[in-house]
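In this section we walk through a basic example: taking a raw amino acid sequence and producing a predicted 3D structure, encoded as discrete structure tokens. The instruction is simple. Fold the sequence below.
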Amino acid sequence: MRYASGFSAVDPVVYLHALRKRCLVVPTMELGRARREAHHGVTVCTPASLGLTHKDQRRISSWALGALRAARIRHVMVSRFFPLGVAERLRRNGIHLEVADVMLFPQREVKSAAEIRWIRESQVAAVAAMQSAVAMIRAARVNRAGHLVHRGSVLTSESVRCAIEHVLVDHNCIARETIVSCGRDAAEPHARGSGPLKAGVPIVIDIFPQHKEHGYWGDLTRTVVKGRADEQLKRMYRAVFAAQRVALDALRAGVTGKTVDGKVRDVFEKRGFVTAVSGGVAEGFTHSTGHGVGLDIHEFPSLSPMGGRLRAGHVVTVEPGLYYRRFGGVRIEDTVVVTARGWKPLAKCACRLEV
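The resulting token sequence is shown next.
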């Protein structure tokens, strides 16, 4: 919605994109802001301006029906995520709905120079927050229980996450589900982490900020250990680091995301890291190599077994990882821009296991 219309919606709105008409229907209270934010050529309407009854002005399905009738359109394509209740109402009123099997605005995949600049802003914020988090861990001492202590207090996932969020706010970004997971928690790729941080075990830090003004995201992950890591953990880290380098070496316009993902899996298999279900839990390389980043934190294209051909201007994460309950997890992630001959980093961040 934001990409197509330019308007950052808080409450439900309706957007109709036709050959000669683009119409955005918003609540009356949002009329002024919508007119300021909407792209050139987008007509901003309210339910009242569509001539809807007082009752219908409170129904989003009536907004959609009113916009279609005003444009004299009876056949429309909608997203796979289009609300079912609205779809049924439109169909009962003679509107034919076709559900798109791809994203409605595929041009979103290739980022403009401005979009790349905005993603870079968010990625720079992620790097600053990561540097702050790693500095806290590096400066911490280890108490008798093996917990990290910083400035007299035990460092926890929650306290490091709070510090990360403060840095992101200073960069005009907001944090979304930041991950600071330690030890066995790190064996779950999306576990946010909780409780005291410990020495000698992996701490996975995954930061993905969204900029408050333009809405574009960044995405960055590092894995660190306070003190010495055991040999198995070092093997995992070396394998993940090598897999990321292989993926980056393969990354360029014309290559498929499937090919890049396959090269990562080959690295892990050759180094003896098996991906399988053990005791009802998936272990090993349990996710894909990467995903697109833009106005959504996960969008097309993908570096996965289903990934299609890459194009210059795609912005993707490259984030191989290994996860085993016995040892924890290791993930290294950077967000980069695909070019005709390779890739460019958006923001550089140091990558070191032991701190």
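Looking at the output, two observations stand out. The chain has two domains: 2-104, 109-345. The two ends are 43 Å apart (CA to CA). In the next section we compare this with other chains.
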